[in-house]
Write a structure and sequence with these properties.
heterodimer, A: 284 residues, MetI-like fold, B: 302 residues, two-stranded antiparallel sheet
């Protein structure tokens, strides 16, 4: 190589490295800022305290409860439906128009922005079905939103189960359903768990689709009417604390908590995926 | 082979069929959801658009929903969304593509693993946290250092959006770069091309359809982003004359006003939602075309 080409190569290499590191630098910047400024506002009282602006109480316990309720209800709807849909796609469906339509639908759903989900939930679940601002409206809207993620991840997990297992089970006289529930699904559990964790992360981080369906009432709902009450999730609280109440201490603390939860979920999902890969390599 | 049912005890037959029906119905849920979303968004948004007049609505430059003679022109919002998207692409595509190149071609395993974790975390950070970071760090920076009156500006919006589209572009481009057969690289290197020449003249062109798909996906994310943008854009529906001007993209306009809007104002917001929805549908069609062409391209090589 002549000198000019070598110099060009070197310059390009440096540019590629520099550009790539900006992404990492930005992540470190945002994480460091949010967590270091958020720590100041985090205390036991903040986490287990209640919320009442008139009394000057800015605890986020109701928001933690609200987030957990929304996660639980969304998962209770999306996970069974998503797993059943994935079972249908991998174990039953023949390639054809229906499968193509289902794929097109799930892909379209994953491309729809959250504000459109929020609008849809507002128009359909809240107004048309008369569910009002409630956990139910929010969970139904969010279930549709995470459905593609659950279906796709579960499908991958089911597809990666050795076809030999199915054949052996069927050859031993087990029925198709028995094979699915006793042989295929247990092998796919780690993959399904990854799907659940990833969708939990999406639900926790969601704001636009929640605020117009589940509302923003900062109170722990009464036990008898959880599904009908409006709740405020941590993300919604961060938005309102920053923009409406201009309470930056609470907002930073909430942001830091959100960040840590997301990082932990991400890490857990990665660990499961890694273990899964390890096991599969061992199996060979 | 797969279709063959097991003739087990007759009593179980109907149970098996019921289960299959349940699975099939679950699979239908996504189709039904897409239909419901399309129907309800259009049903809520098209009537107000038609009432205002398609051209007045889309090309009107005045958005005064609460004035005595209300005006509903959303051109400033459409422009803000498009400019924000274009700006995010201008910064996000090179960074994302170069990150993908580094991950698939250059970086040692350890560094690649670290960078990939960074991208996953960037993708996982909630949009409202991005927005809050923009509000408390980037907006003040623009106000004090770059001399924008409030700091809430198109530039702040672009800065946040670039970081948000980065992981999408990087991860999908990386996948498509990795799918380029090893022989291409070996062939180019054997012909005397340098490492960078191989990457930029052989590998990247071969991965073009996948990279294009990643860009289209990133565009969808940028246009649809709401909470990150609403906190930094200033929410003033005026046609921006510079990067320092406050803007109000479609998503922010909907989210900002929905909770307190009066009946017709609210319908007009549904109208904005419809325009946004149609834009996303169009992007999805483009994406499908790109992916299909890339599948055909693969076929040619094979």
């Amino acid at each position: 190589m002549n000198r000019k080409r070598r110099a060009k190569d070197l310059v390009l290499t440096i540019i590629v490295w520099l550009f790539s590191l900006t992404g990492a630098a930005f992540l470190i910047w945002i994480m460091f800022t949010v967590i270091s400024r958020g720590l100041a506002g985090i205390s036991l009282d903040f986490i287990i305290g209640d919320y009442n602006l008139y009394k000057g109480r800015t605890g986020i316990f109701p928001m933690i409860a609200g987030t957990l309720i929304i996660i639980f209800c969304t998962m209770a709807i999306a996970v069974p439906v998503g797993i059943c849909a994935a079972i249908y796609l991998t174990e039953y469906a023949k390639q054809g128009v229906l499968v193509r339509a289902i794929r097109f639908a799930t892909e379209s759903l994953s491309g729809i922005p959250s504000i459109i989900y929020g609008l849809f939930g507002y128009i359909f679940f809240k107004n048309a079905l008369g569910l009002g601002f409630s956990v139910l409206s929010g969970a139904l809207t969010l279930s549709i939103m995470v459905l593609p993620l659950v279906i796709r991840t579960t499908e991958e997990a089911l597809k990666s189960v050795d076809p030999g297992y199915r054949e052996v089970s069927l050859a031993l006289g087990a029925s198709r359903l028995y094979t699915i529930f006793r042989v295929v699904l247990p092998c796919a559990v780690p993959g399904i768990l990854t799907a659940v964790i990833l969708s939990m992360g999406r639900v926790i981080g969601e704001t636009a689709a929640v605020i117009f369906t589940a509302g923003a009432v900062p109170r722990v709902p009464r036990p008898g009417r959880v599904l009908k009450s409006s709740v405020r999730t941590l993300s919604v609280h961060l938005y309102l604390a920053a923009l409406e109440e201009a309470d930056f201490t609470s907002a930073f603390a909430t942001a830091a908590i959100l960040m840590v939860i997301i990082a932990v979920l991400n890490f857990t999902a990665k660990r499961i995926a890694k273990r899964l890969r390890g096991e599969r390599l061992e199996g060979r | 082979m797969k279709r063959k049912t097991q003739r087990a005890k007759p009593g179980f037959e109907s149970f098996e069929e019921t289960a299959e029906l349940v699975f099939a119905l679950s699979a239908w849920v996504s189709i039904i959801s897409v239909i419901l979303i399309t129907v309800y968004i259009l049903a809520a948004g098209l009537p107000p658009i038609l009432k205002i007049g398609v051209f007045q609505f889309i090309l009107g430059t005045q958005w005064k929903p609460t004035a005595e003679i209300p005006q509903f022109g959303i051109l400033p919002m459409i422009l803000a969304s498009l400019l924000g998207m274009a700006g995010a692409m201008a910064a996000g595509v090179p960074i994302g593509l170069f990150t993908a190149i580094l991950l698939s071609e250059l970086a040692p395993k350890g560094i690649a693993g670290f960078l990939r974790t960074c991208m996953e975390l960037l993708a996982g950070i909630p949009s409202v946290v991005y927005g809050f970071f923009g509000l408390t760090v980037i907006v003040p920076f623009i106000r004090t250092r770059l001399g924008s009156p409030s700091g809430n500006s198109l530039l702040a919006m672009i800065a946040i959006l670039s970081a948000m589209v980065l992981p999408t572009i990087a991860s999908i481009s990386e996948t498509s770069l990795r799918a380029v057969p090893k022989e291409y690289r070996e062939g180019a290197l054997a012909l005397g091309a340098s490492r960078m020449e191989t990457i930029f003249k052989v590998v990247v062109p071969a991965a073009k359809p996948g990279i294009a798909a990643s860009v289209v996906l990133g565009m969808g994310r940028a246009v649809g982003e709401t909470m990150a943008v609403i906190m930094v854009c200033g929410n003033i529906p005026r046609i921006p004359r510079s990067l320092m001007d406050a803007v109000s993209p479609m998503t922010a306009a909907i989210a900002k006003d929905l909770s307190y809007a009066g009946p017709f104002h609210r319908s007009a917001l549904f109208g904005i939602g419809t325009v946004l929805f149609l834009f996303i549908v169009a992007l999805n069609l483009v994406l499908n075309a790109v992916v299909r062409r890339s599948a055909e391209g693969r076929h040619d090589i094979g």
